[in-house]
Design goal:
This protein is α+β, with helices and mostly antiparallel strands. It has 2 helices and 6 strands. It holds the Pfam family Lectin_C.
């Protein structure tokens, strides 16, 4: 099952909370799962960023279970690695001022405090 947490945590804290509940961060591997996770996070908070289980801590983008990235839904010009330290993925808010980025994937600092989906 899935759950969106409208609690601000960094990526590692979010992963630990998911694991403590017997799960892991959600992994949108296809469009149907991605669409479902978007609905879930928007029901929790349409105005917030939400981490999901994708990072490039080992140099390339992989899911937290080590699975490779086949399906993507990056926002335009993402992943950008802005500032040179954006190693984790989150969803843009549904209310993002740039309409084409709404609910799209964004690369983010793993230390940023945002919501998350298990």
């Amino acid at each position: 099952c899935y759950r969106a947490y409208n609690r601000r945590k960094n990526y590692d804290q979010a992963l630990a909370i998911c694991q403590a509940d017997g799960g892991t961060l959600a992994m949108p591997r296809d469009i149907a799962t991605n669409d479902f996770l978007i609905e879930l996070k928007n029901a929790a908070n349409r105005n917030a960023f939400f981490f999901f289980g994708l990072d490039r801590k080992n140099g390339s983008w992989n899911y937290v279970d080590g699975g490779g990235l086949r399906y993507t839904d990056w926002g335009e010009r993402e992943p950008s690695n802005h500032g040179g330290n954006e190693e984790c993925a989150d969803y843009f808010p549904a209310t993002k001022n740039v309409v084409i980025l709404r609910n799209k994937w964004n690369d983010e600092r793993c230390s940023r405090l945002v919501g998350f989906i298990c």
